[in-house]
Amino acid sequence: MTPVRIECRKWPDSPHWEMDAHRLGMDEHGVWCGIRKGTVMTRPGAAITAVADHVTLAPYDDWWLATFYGADPVADAGRPFATYVDITTPSYWLTDTVLRAVDLDLDVIRGTTGRIWVDDEDEFAEHRRTLGYPIDVVEHARESCTSIEAAMRAGEPPFDSATAHGWLARFRRS
Prior knowledge:
The chain is α+β, with helices and mostly antiparallel strands. Helix content is 25%, strand content 41%. It has a seven-stranded mixed beta barrel. Strands 4-5 form a two-stranded antiparallel sheet. The longest helix has 20 residues. The chain is globular. It holds the Pfam family DUF402. It comes from Marmoricola endophyticus.
């Protein structure tokens, strides 16, 4: 496991959420990173502490970052979601230890009860106007949001429970 920093920026390149993580490995879906319970995640004006271990998937060329929590009734009792997908620009490695993407507001979420929804459409519409998202960015974000929601509803990997839970189990054993 390699220590890394995950930096999610806001359009076009302002600080947003940042956290320390561990690069676990990669598979056909992308690069997997683990974040330990107790990790402090910060953004300008706010900080939260991770309430459960979780893994983040940075796909190779897609417009999203996905965070997956476990379903163990004890270890994951405080999990805020089952799956949280930030629609972003494609992530890239700024350095060998810094993963970066630009958050585009839209989120596709699977709650702890299994309900799936798209969040922050109002924020996306506002920032599209006030921050001047280019039309191609808007189109990629919308397409990504639609395809992620469909994949999540269909239980397609990596949005099935087995794929991410395998990486989470590997992380917890390390």
